[in-house]
Amino acid sequence: MPDRVPAFARDAATAAYYEQRAEEYDEWYLGQGRFASLNPPGWQLEVSRLVDLVGGLPAARTLDVACGTGFLTRHLHGVAIGLDRSPAMVARARSRLPAGMVIVGDALELPFADGAFDRVLTGHFYGHLALDEQTAFLTEVRRVAGELIVIDTALRAGVEPEQWLERTLNNGSRHRIYKRYLTSTQLADELGGEVLFEVRSFVAARVKW
Fold first, then answer.
1. Helix, strand, coil % in the chain, rounded to nearest 5
2. In terms of Cα–Cα distance, which of 41, 58, 66, 30 is closest to 147?
3. pTM exceeds 0.85 for this model
4. Which of 29, 40, 58, 175 has its CB 3.0 to 4.6 Å from that of 17, i.e. a possible disulfide?
């Protein structure tokens, strides 16, 4: 179990970690660098299926919360807006979305009007949130959109479902990040929605209001 109070969305140490990680974040998706040996077999095929999931969504006004480098955001059809807390992540995402907009913002206090979007998408963000952060995030999503799709990391055998992870960046610095791993059913149940996608490494669920 965590040895301190879980925090992610507004945690200063977490923000510093992702700001530093921006330039190497895509190595995880691409299976490059240290991830060439850390990622499980079949990883690239599963990433391709995840990209196909996002690219196959109907065109809509979509807000991608915690969009990171825009690795998934760029495959959305329709009007796509990205939001991330990290300026370095936002800069990289902007280079991938020349026809869209990416801004620095707070996922727990979205800077948009009620009903501004048809859909909110978020990848590998929800599973980091503590309970109070989950509640705040879902409240904000319901305010700005009528649909939410959450993509996250699947719970696998032998993995603790809730833990503090020690992550090492290419510069050798070490960081501790709060993380939950979820089954597809658990994710759907928490959102009050339906399972949308499930492979060994990833799960996704959707809820409409």
1. 35, 25, 40
2. 58
3. yes
4. 175
Residue among 6, 12, 24, 10 nearest 167 (CA): 24
Structure tokens at 107: 């996922």
The string over 52-78, giving b where at least 16 C-beta atoms fall within 10 Å of a residue's C-beta and e elsewhere, is ebbeebeebebbbbbbbbbbbbbbbee
Burial 169-188 (b: 16+ CB within 10 A, else e): eeeeeebbbbbbbbebebbb
5 within domain boundaries: no
The confidence score (pLDDT) of residue 207 equals 98
Cβ-Cβ contacts under 8 Å for 170 (sequence gap 6 or more): 24, 33, 34
Would you say 162 and 2 are in contact if contact means Cβ atoms under 8 Å apart? yes
Q: Report the CATH number that the domain containing residue 203 is assigned in CATH.
A: 3.40.50.150
Q: Which residues pair with 198 in a beta bridge?
A: 203
CA gyration radius, the chain: 16
The stretches in the chain having pLDDT less than 70 are: 1-4
> CA 126, CA 145: separation in Å to the nearest integer?
16
pLDDT of residue 3: 57
Q: What pLDDT is attached to residue 103?
A: 97
Q: Per the structure, how many domains does the chain have?
A: 1
Can you give the residue range of the structural domain that contains 148?
12-208
- Answer whether residue 23 is part of any domain: yes
Confidence (pLDDT) at 184: 98
Residue type, 175: H
